[in-house]
Amino acid sequence: MILASVLSLFVGVIDIDFASLFHDSGKLEIFFISRLPRLLAILCTGVGMSVAGLIMQQLCMNKFVSPTTGATISSAQLGILLALLFMPSSTLWGRAVFAFAAAVLGTWTFVWFIQKVQFKDVIMVPLVGIMFGNVIGGITSFLAYKYEMTQAISSWLVGHFSMVLRGRYEIVYLIVPLVVLAFIFANHFNIVGMGKDFSQNLGVPHNLVLFMGLTIAAMITASIVVVVGSISYIGLIVPNVVAMFKGDKIRGTLLDTALFGALFVLVCDIIGRVVIAPYELPIELIVGILGSIIFVGLLFYRLKNGRKAVRLPGAGSSGCAAAVSASEQGGERL
User: Fold this and answer.
1) pLDDT tens digits for 306-322?
2) What is the spatial distance between Cα 68 and Cα 230, in angstroms, rounded to a whole number?
3) pTM surpassing 0.85?
4) Could you check whether the bond before residue 278 is cis, i.e. omega within 30 degrees of 0?
């Protein structure tokens, strides 16, 4: 990730090298106004979306739930549109407040809805979330067309980092305290993910922790959508890939999930900048292509192997092997 970060700082339309930063004030200004803020936004986006997906998967007890399949991103987009309609002169922070409220409400509604479904399997829950998200997206599109706001809302419908500049991306820094808060309550999320009866027997307030975890995930997602736009699949595929090697315990996989998510988004962004240089492809397009392929692969893997972890060479009876033996004792249930 460090090597990719250094490479990202010097990839772009304007050629910038390390030596030119010391004698060219114009390139130094570009470096601090555009390149460095873009890198920080990329890292925060990868970390935030991955951790949000990990939290939602644990709390919903389903490995295919994420901000993408849980209507969180669609709800945040609706919140931004409402801010543009009712507060046309609002600042980025004002739009963020609307996005936070809409994302939290939409996520809570989705989880409440799936809890009311009596018979559900591992695939039906994310499909319900996708349909619910499409309904919210349809409402957003209808309002945008009705009030001629399609061009204004288009920036938040497709994720890209080309507009990330100093002074317009600092909201993503909210991800840092939210991720720290998620790490502090990681054990509580694990307990709640085992069911309401289990958590109550251990003295953990199930509903309170559930709503707190969903609120953290929704706020992380909304802060990213406000700055970058919609980026799908990160919160879905990154936690699943890490869990295949490291198991399902949040505290043990949170750091790995965050780092791998940051690296994944960073690599996708670099690909988007060099494929058709000097033009740039949106990060949503690159992540969508790779994420769709990996998502289909995860579907087949889960249907065939359940939650069986990947056995690493030389793992022996380590945590990975223990995860394999534990997962082989039963299939995945909601």
Assistant:
1) 655 555 555 444 444 34
2) 9
3) no
4) yes
